[in-house]
Amino acid sequence: xxxxxxxxxxxxxxxxxxxxxxxxxxxxxxxxxxxxxxxxxxxxxxxxxxxxxxxxxxxxxxxxxxxxxxxxxxxxxxxxxxxxxxxxxxxxxxxxxxxxxxxxxxxxxxxxxxxxxxxxxxxxxxxxxxxxxxxxxxxxxxxxxxxxxxxxxxxxxxxxxxxxxxxxxxxxxxxxxxxxxxxxxxxxxxxxxxxxxxxxxxxxxxxxxxxxxxxxxxxxxxxxxxxxxxxxxxxxxxxxxxxxxxxxxxxxxxxxxxxxxxxxxxxxxxxxxxxxxxxxxxxxxxxxxxxxxxxxxxxxxxxxxxxxxxxxx
Length: 313
Fold this sequence. Notes:
- It is a single chain.
- By secondary structure, this protein is an all-alpha fold.
- It folds into 2 domains: 149 residues, no CATH class; 99 residues.
- It has 5 helices and no strands.
- α1 packs across α3, α3 packs antiparallel against α4 and α4 runs antiparallel to α5.
- About 3% of the residues have low confidence.
């Protein structure tokens, strides 16, 4: 808030009443601040009013002017001279007083100038310090901005890498899931194929055993058949020899005929048995060819999960 003229005049009167010379510094300190220019102008007016009041109070009119008319002119002149002299003395005193006031004002102004110069030096030093601090702050601010930009760039790069890694992980996870599903399907197919191969091998073994048994049976039948054929031939010869003989041999002939029929039945059974053996051999050959063919199954990941191949003998 600006200091008013009335506040300056009131403060000057208060200081004079307290016996303190109202200088610019004293008035400014009493007001708690203010412009030295404003205070100086108001105090100059205040001092002029004080000097004029003092001069008027010093003028005294003589009492004998009204009593002595004859001596009026002489006394008036004398009085005028005295007044002039007194006025001159008063003016000289006033001039001396003004000169003292001016000198005081000059001294006060010099003090003010010195104070202002000191304040200016302090302010200049503070300004230099602030400028240096501002330069340091600007340098640090630039460094922080560069660091911030670098960190932002690094952060964006890391985000891009993270997004890329996430996308790669998602793709790899999808591929992994697809491979796991494929491995599960292949594992199931392998288990099915192994079970089928095991069953086929068991059936082939059973068929081989049956073929071996049938071969042995066939060999025994062939031996028995050869024996029966030889016996039939002998019986046919005997039948031929005894056809013309006695009727008692008719029973033998009937018996021999029954035996021949039996031999023919045996031959039919042998032929059927041979056909069955031949069919079994064809089935065994077909199953063996299936077992000998390589299976298109993917190799398992580790030897721990690999099942032994039952087709190897």
